[in-house]
Design goal:
- The structure holds 2 protein chains of 2 kinds.
- Chain A is an all-alpha fold.
- Chain A has helices at about 1-40, 45-50, 50-85, 90-95, 105-115, 120-130, 130-135, 145-155, 155-170, 170-180, 185-215, 215-220, 225-235, 240-265, 290-315, 325-360, 360-370, 380-395, 405-430, 435-440, 445-460, 460-475, 480-485, 490-500, 505-535; strands at about 85, 280-285.
- The longest helix of chain A has about 35 residues, at about 1-40.
- Chain A is globular.
- Chain B has 14 helices and 10 strands.
- The longest helix of chain B is centred in the first third of the chain and has 22 residues, at about 1-25.
- Chain B starts with a helix and ends with a helix.
- Classes of the chains: A mainly alpha, B alpha/beta.
- At the A-B interface, helix 13, helix 16, helix 18 and helix 24 of A face helix 1, strand 2, helix 3, helix 7 and helix 9 of B.
Chain lengths: ~525, ~350
């Protein structure tokens, strides 16, 4: 009896703490909903009736293309690398990650430049073979092309999640299906894919959110998506309220997808069953080798190598005009803001997940879900909500100058990117056997010691991965930085964007080169950790 | 322990970033700016060299900055608000965010001035027609409204209606000709599109060069930028087209123009410095820097445009009160949506 009551007190204390931190991080989203119910945007009805249908159709179409292409780029290489032994396998495994370091808007701008009439490809053929040049002279600013480009930038999300899943599906399942007479291809479709569905979907979910939040590339390609609608209301019609209403609607839809996905997968607990051993690698039949190399090379070449070389080449062209002093300032700004924010995100992430896991109270689960919602809101709208929040608080608590301070910027980053940091921590903690916790509790460890002595050491690698993933995302972050930054504060991303948007891709190249290089280094570390942590061969 | 060390170092480094900007708080001026051209940095550095006043800048979208100004209210640190569209300055002054600017040292073209005195233009640009040298005869071009004529079916290139330059152009047409004929015009243009609106202004010119269309509506300075590019193909794309100023002639109203302008915020904490910066930006020296770097037109009557721009000749400017570009903005959007200009 006594033990139970002690546990309850602990629970309550931690739950209250959790609610406090949770509401602190949920505040900006709350402000949006407060505004939703307290004001009427005049244009909402207009937008809803006239444009939203079109915008939504475009959005769905773009998401479908991006997801489909991402699956094509990701699933096959993930399957081959997880199951077959061939030369270059380990290198591919690393290379396929790298596109994640290229911001999607840079990918889009770069590709439209490469493909354009004055770009390198058409120019080459103009001198070499005018017929081919004529054939290539097309309008590439199409929604389908954009979908492919976004997929090239985003497929690593699916690659990571499915790669882990494929490695973990025990050889038992595969042997069984082979014994039952299914061919390799059939095994893949009938056994592997269904078993990996939750993992693949979690990757796709991130891609969907990224596409929903994409603004720069989408605008450039003349594709009107739902987010275009939000900004049309705000920037063109000057109605912040309507923009907020649309953002809230988007949020609710995303939340529903999220819940639906959770529900539909909740009864598939067999997925990481303990009898699943890492699969032994199969030898490749020689005639299949080209297919494997082809499917691994294509996503890497188009998702990373070509754009990277193009950007590198551009950087060399402007190397004489680079201002190194400025570059260093930008570098320090980007690195410090991103690393502090990622550290805090990891810190909050572990608190949320730890409490959710250890107190059985449903409210803690809900809190984690609510604070993760920030990722579904366009960055500029988060910026707006923070401005609204702090101006309503200013008289009582803060001097107004807090709005243009680095602290608010970091706060906004945390609100928006918490979900990114939480997900690797969650997947690691969920794999931890219950018995560790129980043993710890039996030995009389309180919540704090449980966290310090058991959870932190065991999940150390996951925490570092969470740090790196959020760090790379923050390095690329644009809209929040633009609206909330202090005076004279530029990051690599804002500097890149500022040139790119003014149609000066060359001048922007050196800054994007740094974003990509730093991102690459971090991702390589991440990959090494991932392999170690999961013991994925 | 090592990780803690790193954390501490990082946290200190942010304090360092913050302190750096706070220490110099004595003689400064704070800008919220929508302009993000390289030339602006040059101007601010020059200004600091001459006056010793440090220029602090936040660059973002005009509407985001307006929202920030609105919410910061009387406590806003901003002294000046710079946009690339008179309509946004109108919006800011409508929201009570600006105060009148009094200075006798500002020497600019009267036609470009704000009749209410809330903002001062620093450069201006025309939204012009460019046409394919190969496929279009200059004699066939005349006015903006003529572009809605059937004879241009499948030939017109222009960027999307989310773009503020197009919104300003449509607002000017509404202000001049009324909503009904503006709608009719928009419908005609949409029917004449060579492709769905997309890309930026330079892309429209490239699309003419590549044969996807024959006529584009673009801002004048982009042609200057193309012609002065370091990429040979961009130069040849720029050379494949010619510049045409629409609505010229005695009985016509002139080509649509818009300004990059600067407004003094209502509660400007460094008002004296702010006025000094406005005076500097409209001075002969600063205007010369503008025209030779961004190929915009100078607002100071003593300065001439860049050589490349001068070659296109002089033109008659639409004399419309530029505040109307802001006033009719919403109507313009409704027309775009109604007529399917994406």
């Amino acid at each position: 009896m006594e033990i139970i009551s002690i546990k309850k007190i602990y629970n309550r204390k931690w739950t209250i703490g959790n609610i406090l931190i949770g509401s602190f991080l949920f505040l900006p989203i709350g402000v949006l909903f407060y505004n939703l119910f307290n004001s009427k945007g005049k244009s909402f009805k207009y937008l809803f009736e006239n444009l939203l249908f079109d915008y939504s159709l475009n959005t769905i179409y773009l998401i479908l293309i991006t997801c489909l292409c991402s699956l094509i780029f990701a699933i096959l290489p993930a399957w081959f690398i997880s199951n077959y032994k061939f030369k270059g396998r380990k290198i591919y495994d690393v290379l396929l990650f790298l596109p994640l370091s290229i911001p999607s808007y840079i990918m889009a701008f770069t590709y439209s430049e490469i493909l354009s009439f004055t770009g390198p490809i058409q120019t080459f053929f103009k001198n070499f073979s005018p017929e081919i040049a004529d054939f290539l002279n097309k309008d590439y600013l199409q929604i389908e092309v954009l979908g492919i480009i976004l997929a090239l930038a985003l497929y690593p999300y699916v690659y990571t999640s499915s790669r882990i899943s494929f490695s973990y599906i025990g050889s038992n399942y595969i042997n069984l299906s082979k014994t039952l007479g299914l061919s390799s291809i059939k095994t893949f479709y009938k056994v592997i894919i269904p078993l990996s569905k939750p993992a693949i979907f979690s990757g796709l979910f991130l891609i969907i959110l990224e596409v929903l939040n994409e603004y720069g590339a989408v605008k450039y390609f003349g594709v009107n998506t739902y987010t275009t609608g939000i900004f049309r209301a705000w920037f063109s019609m000057g109605e912040t309220n309507t923009a907020i209403q649309l953002a809230c609607l988007l949020l609710i839809i995303v939340f529903l997808i999220f819940v639906f996905e959770k529900k539909s997968n909740s009864n598939k607990g067999f997925y990481y069953s303990s009898n699943s051993k890492i699969q032994k690698l199969n030898m490749v039949v020689k005639k299949n080798l080209p297919i494997i190399h082809f499917s691994c090379l294509i996503p890497f070449l188009f998702g990373f190598f070509f754009p990277f070389i193009f950007i590198l080449n551009n950087s060399f062209k402007i190397i004489s005009s680079i201002e190194y002093k400025e570059l260093i300032v930008l570098l320090v700004n980007s690195l410090s803001v991103s690393s502090i924010s990622s550290l805090l995100i990891v810190l909050f992430g572990i608190i949320f997940i730890f409490i959710e896991k250890n107190s059985k109270s449903k409210i803690n689960v809900l809190i984690t879900q609510l604070v993760s919602l920030g990722y579904a809101i366009p960055g500029a709208v988060i910026g707006l909500s923070l401005i609204l929040l702090f101006t309503s608080l200013k008289k009582s608590f803060f001097p107004i100058s807090i709005i243009g301070s680095i602290y608010i910027l970091i706060y906004a980053y945390i609100v928006r990117f918490l979900a990114v940091g939480i997900s690797p921590i969650r997947s690691s903690v969920e794999k931890m056997p219950e018995s560790y916790n129980d043993t710890g509790k039996n030995l009389g460890l309180g919540f704090y010691n449980l966290l310090k002595k058991i959870h932190l050491p065991i999940n150390k690698l996951a925490l570092i991965s969470a740090f790196i993933i959020t760090f790379v995302d923050l390095l690329k972050e644009l809209p929040i930085t633009l609206i909330l930054r202090p005076f004279n504060f530029d990051t690599l991303a804002t500097q890149t964007y500022q040139f790119a948007i003014e149609e000066m891709l060359k001048e922007s190249s050196i800054y994007s080169l740094f974003i990509i290089t730093i991102g690459c280094v971090m991702l390589l570390i991440f990959k090494a950790i991932l392999n170690k942590e999961l013991d994925v061969s | 322990m090592k990780i803690y060390h790193i954390i501490i170092i990082i946290i200190f480094s942010t304090f360092f970033i913050n302190c750096e900007s706070k220490n110099k708080k004595i003689n400064e001026v704070n800008l919220y700016s929508q302009r993000h051209y390289n030339v602006d940095k040059k101007q601010y550095e020059n200004f600091e060299k001459i006056t010793g006043i440090k220029v602090n800048v936040v660059k973002a979208n005009a509407d985001e900055l307006i929202e920030r100004l609105k919410n910061e209210g009387a406590d806003s640190p901003a002294d000046l608000f710079i946009t690339v569209d008179a309509g946004k300055l109108h919006k800011a002054s409508q929201n009570g965010l600006l105060q009148k600017i009094n200075s006798n040292k500002i020497n600019i073209d009267n036609q470009l001035k704000d009749p209410n005195g809330f903002w001062v233009p620093i450069t201006y640009r025309a939204r012009i027609i460019v046409y394919s040298n190969e496929r279009v005869k200059k004699a066939d071009l005349s006015t903006y409204s003529d572009l809605a004529n059937e004879k241009w079916k499948g030939k017109i290139l222009v960027r999307s209606s989310s773009n503020s330059y197009n919104q300003a152009l449509m607002a000017s047409i509404i202000a001049n000709d009324g909503i009904e004929s503006a709608s009719k015009w928009s419908k005609g243009i949409v029917e004449n599109f060579a492709r769905n609106p997309k890309g930026n202004d330079r892309d429209q010119v490239k699309a003419i060069a590549s044969g996807q269309g024959d006529i584009a509506i673009v801002n004048s300075y982009y042609i200057g930028l193309l012609l002065s590019s370091k990429n040979d193909d961009e130069i040849s794309a720029g050379k494949a087209v010619s510049v045409f100023f629409p609505n010229q002639g005695e009985d016509k109203r002139g080509s649509h123009i818009n300004v990059s302008g600067i407004g003094l915020t209502k509660n400007s904490p460094n008002k004296k410095n702010a006025i000094k910066l406005i005076e500097y930006l409209t001075s002969v020296d600063a205007q010369k820097i503008y025209v030779n770097n961004s190929y915009e037109y100078p607002v100071n009557t003593l300065v001439e445009p860049n050589e490349i721009v001068k070659e296109w000749g002089t033109f008659k400017k639409d004399s419309l009160d530029l505040n109307l570009l802001g006033k009719f903005r919403n109507e313009a959007i409704l027309i775009f949506d109604k007529t399917g200009w994406k």
